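Tokens for chain A. Residues wanted.
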């Protein structure tokens, strides 16, 4: 009965983590470039009371053993990098990646972070930056007198200057991709950091082999599917409830054992 108490408790703890993950997904349903997460679980150790294949007293082989599991735990919380829906905005500085890839940005501490959020802005010096002020890499500055900004599907940034009919190229927005994007570390602000699990960033340009194309005046929305998350929430809630019932049943059995009289 004590095993049942601890096994059910581990189930409640695991489902609490599951609900935390689902709640964060739902909270970010309108976050640009957000990627939903999924909690993965695995069973714990087993107590073997009788091993399968052992020989019984009569000489026959036991076909199945007796093993009692000791509960479950959360093994991983994995980011799902499926594409989100694209939304037309009309803003020339809004960019979306149609396919694989991340924008590279410079963090305040001088490091490099990666994002799918292409809602770019101009800072006081004309640089293309994120909403947090992180400059896009390689750095591109837009002249204050530029009349229009055009960003090609390969990331080439061009502007039209007063009195000129031909656009002037300023640079090219590069993309990065990873062998295992699920291994990236989320640091908030729609940013990821490379880790040993994700592998080193592979640089490229939009539309090249293995990289998605860049779409101007478009944003990639969150890939959270509300219906799927609500169903998962109901399942997690019921699993939590059932685990609490198992604890209650084990407690009642212990109570009955303690009340035995000779």
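Reply:
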């Amino acid at each position: 009965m004590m095993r049942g108490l601890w096994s059910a408790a581990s189930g409640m703890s695991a489902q609490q983590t599951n609900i935390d993950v689902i709640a964060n997904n739902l909270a970010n349903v309108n976050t640009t470039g957000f990627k939903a997460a999924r909690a993965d679980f695995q069973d714990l150790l087993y107590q073997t009371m009788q091993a399968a294949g052992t020989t019984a007293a009569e000489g026959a082989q036991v076909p199945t053993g007796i093993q009692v599991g000791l509960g479950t735990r959360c093994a991983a919380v994995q980011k799902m990098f499926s594409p989100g829906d694209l939304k037309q905005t009309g803003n020339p500085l809004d960019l979306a990646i149609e396919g694989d890839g991340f924008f590279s940005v410079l963090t305040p501490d001088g490091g490099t972070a990666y994002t799918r959020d292409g809602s770019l802005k101009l800072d006081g010096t004309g640089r293309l930056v994120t909403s947090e002020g992180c400059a896009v890499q390689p750095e591109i500055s837009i002249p204050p007198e530029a009349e229009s900004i055009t960003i090609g599907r390969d990331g080439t940034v061009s502007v039209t200057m007063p009195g000129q009919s031909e656009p002037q190229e300023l640079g090219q927005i590069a993309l990065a991709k990873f062998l295992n994007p699920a291994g990236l570390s989320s640091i908030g602000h729609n940013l990821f950091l490379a880790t040993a699990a994700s592998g080193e960033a592979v640089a490229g340009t939009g539309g090249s082999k293995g990289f998605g194309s860049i779409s101007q005046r478009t944003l990639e929305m969150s890939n959270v599917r509300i219906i799927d998350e609500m169903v998962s929430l109901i399942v997690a809630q019921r699993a939590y409830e059932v685990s609490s019932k198992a604890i209650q049943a084990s407690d009642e059995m212990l109570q009955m054992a303690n009340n035995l009289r000779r």
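The two ends are 21 Å apart (CA to CA). DSSP finds two helices and 20 strands in the chain.
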